[in-house]
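We were asked to recover a plausible sequence for a given structure. The inputs and outputs are reproduced exactly as logged, with field labels preserved.

PROBLEM: sequence recovery
POSITIONS: 441
GIVEN STRUCTURE:
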């Protein structure tokens, strides 16, 4: 709770005390039951089975109250009701409870320790989703081939490990809070007896709301050479996230403005490479190097089922989620006939561009007129780039001498368009007012 007495610095003896009290309680528990089974059949076959049953429950409950003009300051923020002259300025309470129930079966099979298969099926049910859509099934499968265990590889002593792996699977999260699909009450104005009053009406329910699902497909190669002196992995992946729960606008004639809906499709694809080497190894000294490289391409493939851009959220089909959407810088206006003619054409159609502190003139930033209509407006806005890098890489060297070690790490982020905050800082007082148009004087 908080309390501001009449003698506090905020009141300074000019007003009565005020106080507020907040209470919140969060409770969460998880219960998991696991069963394992492993069986070796002969010398060639190995089977392992894992069964899982999980139950999770979260509960949040709270209340708050605030009041001013408190006469009895001894009780602080407690027993606000004893201050009979107090004015209650706010009160609220909240309660939310969700449950997640899961069942999972995983089967591992190995043949001669060369060919490995993993099959997983998971059933998840979330209480906050719409009736009939609370449960869904998430399958996954993975294959691995230990090439180094094959007979034709035994004569190649330089190869310690060579494993090819392929995987496909899906996961999901409910993506919404408790009671979101039931059409919660909302405050709405309406006309009554020649006056505008407020009442409560239910929001539009979302009976179609279901699980957002992310599917991932990947293929990778793990390798090791020269008795562990060189090791690493290469992996190529593609990840698709569909059915994100979002607020979708609907016609106002329905009496509502929006509804929760499963829409959207975002794809991430790329490659990840890691390499570790032992460069020098002696009795007292060791030098190792670790290198990582990753490249990811993010694309919005669909937003609301119509495959059209969403300018309000700056989401564009075929572009990353986070982009810079702005006018395109095209240099500085020069004191040349070509630039003066451009300024004249723009000012003729939009006279306001020729007045004020930033009136178009030589020395002012030039904005590219993308459609060539001699107007600078929203039609000239374009996607300039994304803050996400094209690729990243890390380079780490570790030097060990007896009980001492030294690590040197470098990180590279290439590509991506950043917005420098330093360019927004005004260095007030460090320059004089310009009385001469220095660009043309």
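RECOVERED SEQUENCE:
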């Amino acid at each position: 709770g908080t309390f501001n007495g009449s003698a506090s610095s905020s009141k300074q003896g000019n007003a009565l005390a005020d106080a507020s009290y907040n209470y919140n309680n969060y409770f969460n528990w998880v219960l998991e039951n696991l069963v394992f089974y492993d069986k070796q059949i002969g010398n060639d076959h190995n089977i392992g089975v894992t069964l899982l049953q999980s139950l999770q429950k979260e509960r949040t409950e709270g209340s708050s109250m605030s009041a001013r003009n408190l006469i009895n300051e001894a009780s602080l923020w407690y027993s606000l009701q004893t201050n009979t002259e107090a004015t209650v300025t706010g009160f609220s309470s909240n309660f939310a409870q969700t449950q997640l129930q899961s069942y999972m079966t995983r089967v591992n099979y190995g043949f001669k320790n060369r060919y490995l298969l993993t099959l997983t099926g998971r059933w998840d049910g979330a209480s906050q989703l719409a009736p009939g859509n609370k449960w869904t099934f998430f399958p996954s499968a993975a294959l691995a081939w230990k090439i180094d265990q094959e007979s034709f590889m035994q004569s190649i002593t330089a190869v310690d490990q060579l494993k090819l792996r392929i995987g496909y699977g899906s996961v999901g999260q409910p993506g919404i809070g408790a009671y979101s699909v039931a059409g919660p009450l909302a405050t709405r104005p309406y006309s009554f007896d020649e006056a505008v009053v407020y009442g409560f009406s239910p929001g539009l329910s979302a009976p179609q709301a279901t699980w957002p699902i992310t599917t991932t497909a990947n293929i990778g190669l793990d390798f090791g050479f020269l008795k562990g002196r060189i090791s690493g992995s290469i992996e190529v992946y593609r990840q698709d996230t569909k059915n994100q729960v979002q607020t979708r606008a609907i016609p106002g004639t329905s009496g509502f403005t929006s509804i929760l809906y499963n829409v959207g499709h975002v794809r991430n694809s790329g490659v990840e490479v890691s390499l570790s080497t032992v460069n020098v190894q002696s009795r007292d000294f060791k030098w190792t190097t670790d290198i990582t490289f990753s490249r990811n391409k993010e694309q919005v493939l669909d937003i609301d089922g119509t495959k059209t851009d969403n300018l309000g959220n700056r989401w564009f089909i075929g572009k990353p989620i986070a982009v810079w959407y702005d006018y395109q810088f095209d240099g500085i206006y020069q004191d040349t006939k070509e630039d003066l003619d451009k300024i004249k054409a723009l000012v003729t159609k939009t006279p306001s561009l020729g007045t004020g502190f930033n009136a178009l003139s030589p020395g002012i930033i030039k904005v590219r007129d993308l459609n060539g209509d001699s107007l600078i407006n929203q039609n000239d806005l374009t996607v300039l780039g994304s803050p996400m890098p094209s690729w990243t890489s890390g380079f780490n060297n570790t030097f060990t001498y007896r009980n001492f070690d030294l690590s040197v790490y470098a990180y590279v982020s290439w590509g991506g368009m950043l917005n420098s905050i330093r360019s927004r800082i005004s260095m007030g007082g460090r320059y004089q007012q310009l009385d001469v148009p220095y660009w043309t004087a």
